[in-house]
Amino acid sequence: MFQVRIHGRGGQGVVTAAELLSVAAFTAGRHAQAFPSFGSERTGAPIVAFCRIDTRPIRLREPVLQPDVLIVQDSTLIQRVAVFDGLPPHGYVLLNTRRPWEQLGIEELTPDRVVLVPATQLAIVHLGRPLPNAALLGGFAALSRGLVPLDAVITAIRDRFQGAVGDGNAAAAAAAYTLVRETVQEPLHA
Amino acid sequence: MLSQIEGSRAVAETVALCRPQVVGAYPISPQTHIVEGLSALVKAGTLGGCEFINVESEFAAMSVAIGASAAGARAYTATASQGLLFMVEALYNAAGLGLPIVMTVANRAIGAPINIWNDHSDAMSQRDSGWIQLYAEHNQDAVDLHVQAFRLAEELSTPVMVCMDGFVLTHTYEEVAVPTQEAVDAYLPPYRPRQLLDPAEPVTIGAMVGPEAFTEVRYLAHRVQLAALTRLPALAEEFAASFGRPAGRPVRPYRTRDAETVVVALGSVLGTLKDTVDELRAEGESVGVLGITLFRPFPLDAVRAALRQARRVVILERAFAVGAGGVVTADLAPALGPGQQSYTVVAGLGGRPVTRASLRRVLADAGAGTLDPLTFLDLRRSLIAPACEGA
Predict the structure, then answer these.
(1) Topology annotation, domain B251-388
(2) Residues A83-99: pLDDT tens digits?
(3) Is the pTM of this model over 0.95?
């Protein structure tokens, strides 16, 4: 079983990202489960969503406590929420930021476990709006090396968003995919 | 065909396939996505001939369902938590009048304190209302139970509540096979009301009944409920033959045949429990799970048969009767023999996650004989200490 936890803020499409990831995994022939951890459903409030992917049907309903990949849609959460809780030594963090590692002040992890993706910038360029979720899913596809292929992510995005919004999000995902493929050499333990 | 969709969406599509003629809708978390989905289907013309009524409260939602059902329409609504409590007076009327309304309850805690998250307090507070209650384990189950609920309700002329865990199921995306219209039509014939309000042939439904016959009305209601104990298993077998998957079996034993310890539970926690039991079995522990789908009427004989060999029975309660104890525990007690030790574990109230780690701790304590007969799972003692001091 492969487990993903997504942190972000209300309005950034955190729950949508988990849902799209599960649809992409399903499209790729896997079993998948996505669910939110609702709390303060306000714009800007910290939000968490989860996604499990497996080759067998998924019965487990507890929150993802030990994520294989942690997607952080908003880097301002790092100092305020215990986002890295439960991350095992083999786990990766996909972090939306345009800042270099040295400026992030992350003490809990080493830089080889953290993949930096300027997802908001990519979304502004390709979509025209600062919504980082689709781009990060493209980054996840690159990191997962075939667990969830990019074309499955793009299919899921286009199923949900038609027209220009679908095009923009798909382009942002593809751009992030290329970036992460160039950055990460070591394959993920899937 | 399998699709990866939200539980609420799957239920909305399935309810639409059951061709309700009147849907009374009032939004409340975590049920809202279901009636929103149905409103979209009605607007799109997918649900021909269905009257979708936006009502002003849950009391009105059930009242609309009662009126529609009495006039011969297949009626549906959905609610949760405080919404269910607000319609309680009408709930008892629906059952007392023998109206085959189907309602989804997206299970949620009851305030105060206000809490939007999942437990079974809402539906279980209505265990004596005369409604049949079915509890879904996963979203496929939720879908399948709705199809069966309309059939069961109309055959017995009594209302049925399909309970699905709020958020944990309603808001989860997972793979679901939403049935085809042809398959549902073949399984669920058009509604033929037992009695009908018709201006051309006026009758009175719901007249006052005095002491001379009130007991008899209740006796007959009980008899109708008990009929579900044999009718639901038959419908479940017919469903399995038609749709190729099991659903609606009143009890669902999992690895219980030789289990020394059996955990009894309802709803979505069964998935986590089964994973936990598989882990413990691999380590040589003798444990199993008994899922209960049918909570009203309570399938006492089936529960007794499934627990016969167990030395220890752990009842996982997702609701709690303050001042008394476990709700399921009280129902289940007559199924246990003198040599069987039972434990009540109150778990997952107000949305607290029930984890494998916590379940393993409880089962280890039960095996060691150190589990309290009434245990609150993961009770945060630091939070209660100030209030308990000096008590």
Answers:
(1) Rossmann fold (3.40.50)
(2) 999 999 999 999 999 99
(3) yes
